Amino acid sequence: MDRIVRWLDLLVHLDRRWIFILIALGTALPILFPIGFKVSITPSAQALYDKIESLEPEDVVMVSFDYGPSTAPENDPMADAVLRHCFSHGVKVVVLALFPIGGVTMADQSLARVLHDYPGIKYGTDYVNLGYKSGGQATMKQMGEEIHNVFPVDRYGKPLAEIPLMQRVHAYRDVKLAVSMATGIIGEWWANLVNAQFGIPVACGCTAVSAPKYYAFLQSGQMIGILGGLKGASEYEKLLTRGYPATAPIYARPGLYTAIKGMDAQTIDHSIILLFIILGNLAFFLGRMNNRRKAS
Amino acid sequence: MRFLRLQLPLFLTALAGSIPIVAFFWSPNGTIVQTTKDWLEKYMVIIASFALLLGVINVVQTNVKKIERRQAGWHYGLFLLAGLVGMGTCGILGAIQVGPFQGIGFRPDGSRTPFQWGAEFIFNPLQATMFSLLAFFMASAAFRAFRARNVEATILLIAAAVVMVGRIPLGESILGGRPYLAHFTDWLMNWPNAAAQRGIIIGAALGAASLSLRVIVGIERSFLGIDKSE
Description:
The complex is a heterodimer.
Chain A (H helix, E strand, L loop, with lengths): L1 H11 L3 H17 L10 H11 L6 E7 L5 H18 L2 E6 L5 H13 L11 E6 L4 H7 L3 H4 L26 E6 L3 H13 L3 E5 L4 H9 L5 E4 H15 L4 H5 L6 H37 L1
Helix pairs in contact in A: 1-12, 2-12, 3-10, 4-5, 4-10, 10-12
Chain B lengths: L1 H24 L6 H37 L5 H22 L18 H32 L5 H16 L3 H4 L6 H37 L14
């Protein structure tokens, strides 16, 4: 007993750099050598997929890039997957960014990655990039009245009035679905401001750490779907490759970071953390038992 | 003086705060309420942009003081200011299109402007690196802090462990491919979690509404930089 307690005590006082090394290996190795764990679909991801599937080819989806480089490994795959779904299904996309610290760069990069595989998609008729606008809630509220006032020109300086797609998109009433790829509070505003006041369906692709708060909006019907963290993104990738087999080779391409590949690293890292938590608690209880035994 | 310092700002605040509330419930087209509401919403976007300027002034003031007084970590402040001036200059010159600084995004030929280059190759990797470090600290902190010391800590520990396993494919693998843990995780998120989150959201919204009301009727005056007695 004493030997076990001593050993576990050693573990409890383990230099944290050993934990860092294990986490580094647990992250790097599955990315270099993918394992391919099975991904199951949750109803919240399925709901977003079904909503886009239900849209007609001329319908417009608004995709807002409300995140920065800090959460890109989680948000990028879900943004890419939603854009690929829209382009594969044939719906039109209006892209914008409301996050000040890198949102517009994330939008540019995501569009570049996705459009590489959709040479037939034309700027101005199939999609538009409005760029970034500061103001948060004020901007979102104003877009309910007239998008052309908020974004007089697009990301490349072209007046919106000269862009064919934007000639029929003036406010939220012209949009069938808004999807916010969010970190922080902006995703919440899409639910409690845009959905509540303008009534358009809203969905959110959020980081895992902020996902719990979005379930309240999902349950109340203020959001029609949620992609929670890397897991949500991997579910969407699976739905997309199942529904549109032509996208499967894109996700199988070596060197392309995808959520399904990222889930391998997340699985290993969660397992390492859980193992350490179990061992830490075992040491805690055995140490307490040992102290009581010695005291008695 | 009292009029300019107190009464006029309070009147403008009450007016600007009341009109959107009235317009939300009653604003037929063409009425003065509708016109003023539209006007206020347009100006809200412009005024909100000034928050960025305020932020820049605050960052400069704080860091200049830090550098002058050689406080701990002053050299980080130096880097911060260098980044602010560098990117700010690229942004401003890009906006007025001077020399190679044609815009702040991509040029028509697809090449990057200096601002875009800085954002893409300096800022983005730095921010991603900072956030990535969290994984290591979270793992270490979870190992040291997650102890079942009492009932509350035990409930938290069990819920966290279930969600962690339920959110990875391993949860299904250890139960022979059956998604029981994933379903239980969904239940935890959809019911106990959503109930608690909704309580927090409603509480915060009521707090925000009551604070807004205090500002509109002039009880809360701290935003004017004066206390209640004035």
